[in-house]
Amino acid sequence: MKRLLVAIAVVGSACAIEPPVPMGVVLITLDTTRADRLSPYGFGDAHMPALDRLAREGVVFDQATTVAPLTLPAHASLLTGLLPPHHRVRDNASAPLGNDHVTLAEVLAARGYRTAAFVGSAVLDPDRGLRQGFQEYGGISRDTSNPLAPVGRGLQRPAGAVMDDAVRWLATVDHAPFLLWTHLYDPHRPYEAPEPFASRHDPYVAEIVYADSQIGRVLDALDRRHLLDRVVVIVAADHGESLGDHRERDHGVFLYESVLRVPLILRAPGVHPARVATVVRLTDVMPTILDLLGLPVPPLDGISLLATLNGQPADRDAYAESLYPRRHGWAPLFSLRSDRFKFIDAPRPELYDLHLDPFEERNILEQRQELAAALRTRLRSLEQPQPATGARVPVDAELHARLAALGYVAGGAPEIHPGDPHLPDPKACTGVFESGRCK
C-alpha cells in the first residue's frame, strides 16, 4: 500500500507526497532538558543553531510529553514504545530492562541495520538493559575499585566525548542502513559547561547551548558524507528540569509540565517542515521510526505520528508517573493528560486546564469533579505493573552508590501505592528533601 505523508504547517497547506525510505536513523537524547529553554520553542536568550536548523527543516512537536521525570524509565519507554508499568523500569534504581522486551535496536539489527549507542551517564550504563540490539555501546568507563568516584570522574562524560565516538562510528557506516543513538547528559546538574558557553549564559542554559554545538558536529558529519537528507534525525529529551517551579529545584518528584513537557523535533526525507500542537508522547517515537522506515509496527503503547502528520485527528492520553517519592517515604505520583486537561493522582489530587493555566497554578478539581473521576479511572487502569515473563537482574550495591553520587536517593526499589492516603503528599514535603521527612 502506498504510504502518503503530509506535514501540516501552522499556516497554509501542504501537498501529499510519497516519502523515500530513509537509509538510517540518528536519535539524539538530551538529558534533563525542558522545552521552554530551547530556541525552537521560543526561548530568546540563547542561539542554538543546530536545533534551530532541525526545527526549520523538520517537524517541531509543541506538546511532547515524557512518561517519567527520571532518565532510565524515560529512555526505556523511548526505545521500547511501552509505558513504565509495561516495561517495568520505574525508577533509575529499578532492575534493568528485561530481555523479554524488544527494543528499537533489536528490531533494526534483526533486519541488517548496523547499530551503535554512545551515552553520557552511568544511569544508562550497558548493565541497565538498554544495550539490547546495539552492536556497539559506548557507556561510562569507571574505576571499579572506587564506585563513589566524584561526578565527572567515572559517572558522566561531556557531550564532546560522546560525539567524538559518534562521529568516529559514522565514518565506518559507508552505505549500510544504520541506527545511531547518542545521549547527552550535560544539562543535568551539576551545571558545568565549558567555555565560552559558561561565561555567556546562565549555568543551565549554557549546558544546553554546549550540547547544541555538539549536535551540530553530528549534522556536519552527516552533511560531509551526503547522508543528512537520507536519514531520520530525531532530537528528544528524556524529561525536563523544575528550576524551582513548584518549589522543586531539580526533577524526579513532581509531575508538572516543567519536567513532563519535553522537546521533540523530527527531520526526515519527504517530511515537510511543520509545527504540531497535538499532544504526543515519547512512546510514539519507536513506532514512528519503524513507520518511516517502512517496517511493520508491532502492538505498542505508542502509535506512529505519521497519521498526525497526515492531518488525521489523534486522541492520545499521555500517562506519566513518579515512584521516586517513595524513596523518601512519600506517596508516588501518577498523571494523565487528555488534550487540555491533566489529572495528577496524589493524596491531594489535582486537575489543571493547561490551555488556561499552563503553569498549573489553579487546581480546578472541585469545579470539575466528574471529569477528574473519569481521568482517575483511566489512569488507575494503566499504573499497575504487568507480570514479568523473563529473568530479572537484581540491583546491586554499586548501582546504589553510583546513583547516590549523581544526587539520587538510594535504597530498595520503591513500592507502588497509588493514591495511598497514609503516605505524605509530596506537595507537603517540599523543602525537606535533605532529611526525607515531612513536617
Would you mind describing this structure in some detail?
The protein has twelve helices and 13 strands. By secondary structure, the chain is an alpha/beta fold. It has two domains: 24-311, Alkaline Phosphatase, subunit A, CATH 3.40.720; 320-428, no CATH class. Strands 1, 2, 3, 4, 5, 6, 7, 8 and 9 form a nine-stranded mixed sheet that branches. Strand 11 (333-338) and strand 12 (341-345) form a beta hairpin. It is globular and about 60 Å long. The termini are far apart.
Topology readout:
Layout: E1 24-30, H1 49-57, E2 59-65, H2 71-80, H3 84-87, H4 104-109, E3 114-118, E4 136-138, H5 159-170, E5 178-184, H6 197-200, H7 203-224, E6 231-237, H8 257-260, E7 261-262, E8 264-267, E9 274-281, H9 285-292, H10 306-309, E10 317-322, E11 333-338, E12 341-345, E13 350-353, H11 369-380, H12 397-405
Parallel strand pairs: 1-5, 1-6, 2-9, 3-4, 3-5
Antiparallel strand pairs: 2-7, 2-8, 6-8, 10-11, 11-12, 12-13
